[in-house]
Write a structure and sequence with these properties.
Glycosyltransferase; three-stranded antiparallel β-sheet; 14 helices; alpha+beta; 17 strands
Length: 472
């Protein structure tokens, strides 16, 4: 049964991948492109191909240039299924080696391409189709995190004790799944100035999101969502109650699962709630400026204020070494979990999500905590970085290195992160889910499109901010 998994593969697992035959020479070493041949690519964007050439031409190191040229277009090459639904654009996006569409992963897979949409109408229409598909997913099952291509398909997870239905891959409630729909909507709107996706169905989906957030504040009871997974399929701790661990209703939004898809220890996940604050404010802006809907805008802003006030009251804690920092999870009854997980939204990723600036003192202290052994999921060996309970101790997730580089405010940290990523790809030409801290040839998920796209974004941002890094 496929899920996000904890197996280790070797580089031989990707040895048979199709290539387009391009060669990147580097001294005596030749790096052969790992992209599918042009005729086998699922989607081709002229703007993306031009960016690969333009940015690639600024990268002096042939291995880094090869890694960027393989990874950045990987979601388009391999995961996008673009078509039409009722005469409008429709795009289903795989996560990679799992045949399902995660709302969060899809947003991150597309985010790196948004700046190019105004220069490539075909690309813009594809992302337009992504938004429409995400809206249909929300209207099908707002509490789900991952969906199948066809609404009639049945998931292998039908044994889960929850409200499963056809078209849903996994019915795990994660706050960031809904925030991701808003973030991509807002990013598309601001970048493309195209209001066509924001029709009556989009408004209905946004209402469903706000209603779901309200229900999971749990001021009026536990709400309609419940989940349990029968043993022995469980890898992460699932509380005995189908409604999750106890917490005090305080204004924050309760969740059952983290962005890693692992169960929470405490039900108030701070990065998710801060993501919700940003998303609700973005949604208010869209309601007001696209549809001149003052009532919905006021409701979104009021909910954002309520969630933010609760985070400030219960989500900021004291650490004996780092002082005031954000907790990772709390229950608003005095219990707190001080850690960070590599999967965004994370504490490390807060500026990337638009929560705060990289210079914010509270973030600076939290970042220092996250990137230290005080964080139980930070590990250091031949490589260093944040891992996740999802793959266990001793693993580094490249997502943490990517986000460390994207949220750095200096060239030194950015250069270090890029160098670690370059040297940990195990000769595959792609970014993985995780790898062993002392041996990158032991890795999980050879085809993980979200990480590939975000690595491409890091290199493009670096070309703008610190071009000297790529020229070294």
């Amino acid at each position: 049964m496929l899920t996000r998994r904890n197996f280790i593969v070797s580089t031989a697992a990707v040895a048979g991948i199709l290539t387009d035959g391009a060669v990147y020479a580097g001294g005596t070493k030749r790096f052969i492109s790992r992209r599918p041949p042009p005729g086998k690519r699922r989607f081709v964007s002229t703007a993306v191909e031009r960016t690969i050439k333009d940015v690639g031409g600024k990268i002096r190191d042939p291995k880094l240039r090869w890694l960027f040229s393989n990874s950045y277009p990987n979601p388009l090459d391999t995961t996008v299924e673009f078509g039409a639904f009722h005469g409008k654009p429709d795009t289903f996006v795989l996560t990679g080696d799992i045949p399902a569409m995660w709302q969060r992963d899809t947003m991150d897979q597309m985010w790196a391409y948004l700046p190019l949409c105004p220069h490539d109408h075909h690309l813009q229409q594809m992302v337009n189709g992504v938004l429409r598909r995400m809206v249909r997913n929300v209207l099908l099952a707002a509490y789900a995190n991952a969906y199948l291509k066809n609404a009639a398909q049945v998931s292998p997870w039908t044994g889960d004790l929850t409200h499963m239905q056809p078209g849903v891959w996994e019915h795990k409630w994660e706050v960031d799944s809904l925030c991701s729909v808003i973030r991509l909507s807002h990013g598309y709107w601001k970048t493309c100035r195209d209001n066509s996706p924001f029709d009556a169905s989009w408004t209905a989906a946004m209402d469903r999101i706000v209603k779901t957030f309200r229900a999971q504040q749990r001021f009026d009871g536990l709400g309609p969502y419940y989940f349990q997974r029968p043993a022995p399929a469980v890898r992460s701790p699932i509380p005995a109650s189908a409604y999750g661990p106890d917490g005090k209703p305080c204004g924050m939004i309760f969740t059952r699962f983290r962005p890693s898809d692992d169960a929470v220890v405490y039900p108030l996940h701070i990065p998710d709630n801060l993501f919700a604050v940003v998303s609700l404010r973005q949604l208010a802006d869209m309601h007001e400026k696209i549809h001149h809907d003052h009532r919905r805008a006021v409701e979104c802003r009021a909910l954002a204020r309520q969630v933010h006030a609760a985070v400030n009251k219960y989500g900021i804690v004291h650490h004996p070494k780092f002082g005031r920092i954000y907790a990772y999870e709390v229950n608003a009854m005095g219990d707190q979990l001080q850690m960070d997980d590599a999967n965004p939204p994370s504490l490390l990723a807060l500026p990337f999500m638009g929560v705060c600036s990289t210079s914010d003192p509270l973030y600076r202290a939290t970042r220092a905590f996250c990137w230290s052994t005080a964080n139980p999921w930070f590990c250091r060996g031949r490589f260093a970085g944040i891992g996740s309970p999802h793959t266990g101790k001793g693993t580094v997730w490249p997502l943490s290195l990517i986000l460390y580089g994207l949220t750095a405010d200096n060239a030194r940290e950015t250069a270090w992160a890029i160098n670690e990523l370059k040297n940990s790809s195990a000769g595959t030409g792609f970014i993985h889910e995780s790898f062993h801290k002392n041996n990158p040839a032991k890795f999980t998920r050879p085809w993980f499109a979200m990480a590939n796209a975000m690595f491409g974004e890091l290199i493009i941002q670096t070309a703008r901010r610190y071009p000297q890094i790529l020229q070294a």
